[in-house]
Design a protein that fits this description.
By secondary structure, this protein is mostly beta strands. It has 2 domains: 1-45; 51-353, TolB, C-terminal domain (Neuraminidase, 6 Propeller). The chain has 1 helix and 28 strands. It has one helix spanning 2-45; strands spanning 54-58, 62-67, 71-76, 93-99, 106-112, 117-120, 124-129, 132-137, 144-148, 164-167, 171-175, 180-184, 190-193, 198-205, 208-215, 218-225, 232-238, 243-246, 250-254, 265-270, 277-281, 290-294, 298-302, 312-316, 323-326, 333-337, 340-344, 348-353. It has a 4-stranded antiparallel sheet with strand order 1-28-27-26, with no helix packed on it. A 4-stranded antiparallel sheet has the order 2-3-4-5, with no helix packed on it. A 4-stranded antiparallel sheet has the order 6-7-8-9, with no helix packed on it. A hairpin with a 6-residue loop joins strand 8 (132-137) and strand 9 (144-148).
Length: 356
């Protein structure tokens, strides 16, 4: 007992000295480890094929966006009531533009009901809105009503993100609470095609127009020729699909709704086959893809309703790791050109360059 009691204080003192000597190195190693882990996480989550986001325009109530070789164009929402709901009886939205690198902002049209979606070609700007579909010269000028929708038959409200418009060298194509409509630019002949219960989203690819519809709780991809003939339908999955994109080989789609088939997934399937597969997935079904779009090499989507964050995400079409291009953004619209992509939030237009 004498020996043990004599050694006990000495042992405690030795241990204390050892801890004092080792404490700083251990803390330094821990700090280095944490920093290294953070750097590795940042590297793994970043796609170095893209630049950091750059704000081009900052102003309130931005809605849709479109681009040409020189300019970025956008629409603004109509005024809000005191309860933060859009005022259906006030037409004070605008069509605006600026050079792609920012600078002088031009107002091309004002006194509008909110343009839900816009498109541009070599000569004009087109948009879908309450009351119908419109065009005007893209340098400014007279506004022309292409196709009228009786206001009392309209299911939407000023500011709703509903309806879609696309344009190519020959035609203008749109959906605005009703059938698909096609207008020949030269003759201004208007055709319409009622395809049943369709989504408010269309996409042009090659010689075709694509869209989604539902029947008996199943989602289909429909396709028609650009003259409106040759309707075909391709089964995608049970339950609702949130958004889609096509190229000349595959269809891609995303499912944001929880408890739905493929919830939280980005799916792909060859247009010539009936074999869907998962391209990307997330454990948080609320972070499932919204506003899916694509270019030659990448798929893009936002996670606007994510449980913990709202991001803009990219993924190579051949698969791999998805990367966050912009953190904590609620994306309203995306426009892609050869140099990168522009996206809108309620207060900003942001550009992300694709590195060559």
């Amino acid at each position: 007992m004498f020996v043990l009691s004599a050694l006990k204080p000495q042992t405690r003192s030795d241990l204390k000295n050892i801890f004092l000597k080792l404490g700083k190195p251990i803390m330094l190693i821990a700090v280095i480890f944490i920093v290294a882990a953070c750097v590795l996480f940042w590297i793994s989550s970043k796609d170095f094929n893209f630049s950091t986001p750059k704000t081009v325009v900052e102003m309130p109530l931005i809605q849709a966006v479109a681009v040409d070789d020189a300019y970025v164009y956008w629409s603004t929402l109509g005024s809000l009531k005191d309860n933060n709901i859009w005022n259906d009886d006030v037409a004070d939205a605008k069509i605006m533009r600026t050079k792609k690198d920012g600078g002088n902002i031009e107002t091309l049209a004002s006194g509008l009901y909110t343009p839900w979606d816009i498109a541009v070609d070599d000569a004009n700007i087109y948009w879908v809105s309450v009351m119908g579909t419109y065009r005007m010269p893209k340098d400014g000028g007279d506004i022309v009503l292409i196709d009228k929708i009786p206001y009392y038959d309209n299911m939407g409200v000023n500011g709703s993100n509903s309806g879609d418009i696309e344009v190519d060298d020959k035609n203008v194509y749109w959906i605005n609470y009703g059938p698909v409509k096609i207008m020949d630019k030269e003759s201004e002949t208007l055709k319409e095609f009622d395809l049943g219960q369709i989504y408010g989203d269309i996409e042009l690819q090659g010689d075709y127009i694509y869209g989604l519809d539902e029947e008996d709780n199943k989602t289909f991809l429909w396709r028609i020729n650009k003259d409106g003939t040759g309707l075909t339908r391709k089964y995608l999955q049970n339950d609702t699909v949130s958004s889609f994109s096509v190229d000349n080989v595959k269809v891609y789609w995303g499912v944001q709704l929880c408890f739905s088939e493929n919830s939280g997934n980005v799916m792909k399937m060859p247009l010539s086959e009936e074999a869907p597969s998962v391209l990307a997935s997330t454990w948080d079904c609320n972070s499932g893809p919204i506003d899916l779009t694509s270019d030659e090499g990448y798929i893009y989507w936002d996670t606007n309703f994510g449980t913990f964050s709202q991001n803009l995400v990219s993924l190579p079409k051949q698969g791999g790791t998805s990367h966050v291009l912009a953190h904590n953004v609620f994306v309203r619209d995306i426009a892609i050109d050869l140099n990168g992509l522009f996206f809108t939030t309620r207060e900003k237009i942001v550009f992300i360059a694709k590195k060559k």
